[in-house]
Amino acid sequence: MRPLNKHQDTPKRSMLQRLARIGVIVLITAAIGWSVARQWDEVVEIFQRLSWPPVVAAVLAVLVGMGANVLAWRAALADLGFRVDVATAGRITLIGNLAKYVPGSVWSYVLQMELGRRAGLPRSRALLTSMIATGLGMTAGLALALSVGLPAQGGSLDQFIKIVMLIVVPVALICAVPAVATRLINLALKALRRDPLEQSLTWRGVLRTVGWSAVAWLFFGLHLWLLVNALTPTGFDGLLRCVAAIALAMVISTFAVFAPSGLGVREGLLVAALTPFLAPFAGDVERAAGLALGLALASRVVFTVADLVAAGLAALSARRVLQVNAAVSPDVSYLP
Asked: End-to-end distance of the chain based on CA atoms, in angstroms?
């Protein structure tokens, strides 16, 4: 009788979890709406002051950053003993990346795993590649934020973040050492009753993945700086601050599995990181908070547009490949 009750409870539990996620999303949306309404004048002013050139430049910067992440994923895959061309890696990562807008932290991995299978990769290795690229990308972002950003603003938040990162970053760097990373991966595979890696990760593969991830973070920071600089010149210090702010916000919001693409969490972190820095330019803290909120929302729009453009280009590329393969052999199955 117990197994029967367990099976009967599963749909109910699944529905409750779905309702909980929907509730969290509604709360986040309401919180964003309240913040926007509270500082509506500043937000409207920002969107009115942003001209097309910096917005287009910001979208291009994000697209370049996404391209660097594609190369990071490809480098991680090569370190596992599999090679695909750049176009195929782009189709797997960029199309799969759209699943991040669905609540939950696994859907991008699931979609990339399926797209990888259609490209001829084992599901397990496609999944491992995405997890390795994500982990090393987070390490690169945190290390970059600690080394170039978070300048001394005198705020308690800055000091707290620095203390936390001085603890977290060394641990992340140790875990990125090939021998340690290989050991951790094999332990995870053993727990899942999967075969261990056929070969250990290498310094060359790890450094290439981290390097391309660092390039991505730099361009993501550049996109934010282009938006900020369009409203108030902040110079090179502003660029460093933007790189650190976007890296921290995106890395931390990744763990907000209840929010699609870190919705609300990323914006809140950007506001917290940018407000102390923008206060001298805005004149007071409240106005700086409104400025930071408007920039965070503009950044969200830019990333969404870039995601759609990148996935669209990848889909068009996949269709072209499908047509070519179909002309050669009607039985060829490739990316959708």
From this structure: 44
Residue 76 contacts residue 132 (beta carbons within 8 Å): yes
CA distance 99 to 237: 34
Number of H helices, E strands in the chain: 13, 0
Residue 2 in any domain: the answer is no
Nearest to 86 by CA among 60, 67, 99: 67
CA–CA distances in Å: residue 246 to residues 24, 164, 168, 283: 23, 17, 17, 23
pLDDT single digits (tens) 96-143: 888 777 666 677 788 888 888 888 888 888 889 999 999 999 999 999
Q: How far apart, in whole angstroms, are the C-alpha atoms of residue 157 and residue 110? A: 36
Tokens of 324: 């070519």
Distance CA 211, CA 202 (A): 14
Q: Which two tokens stand for residue 105?
A: 């932290």
Structural domain range at position 231: 40-322
Give yes or no for a contact between 181 and 201, defined as CB atoms under 8 angstroms apart: yes
In this prediction, residue 300 carries a pLDDT of 87
Q: Count CB neighbours of 22 within 10 A.
A: 12
**C-beta atoms surrounding 324 within 10 Å:** 11
| 168 lies in some domain | yes
Helices within the chain (DSSP H only) = 2-38, 40-49, 52-79, 86-90, 96, 107-118, 123-148, 156-176, 178-191, 203-231, 235-254, 265-282, 285-328
* Contact present, 142 and 168 (Cβ < 8 Å): yes
Mean pLDDT of all residues in 272-301:
83
- The answer to whether position 31 is within a domain reads no
What is the full DSSP assignment across 269-302? HHHHHHHHHHHHHHSSHHHHHHHHHHHHHHHHHH
The total of structural domains in the chain comes to 1
- Structural contact between residues 134 and 82, judged by C-beta atoms closer than 8 angstroms: no
Residues whose CB falls within 8 Å of the CB of residue 71, separated by 6 or more in sequence, listed in order: 86, 89, 212
Asked whether residue 294 is domain-assigned, the answer is: yes
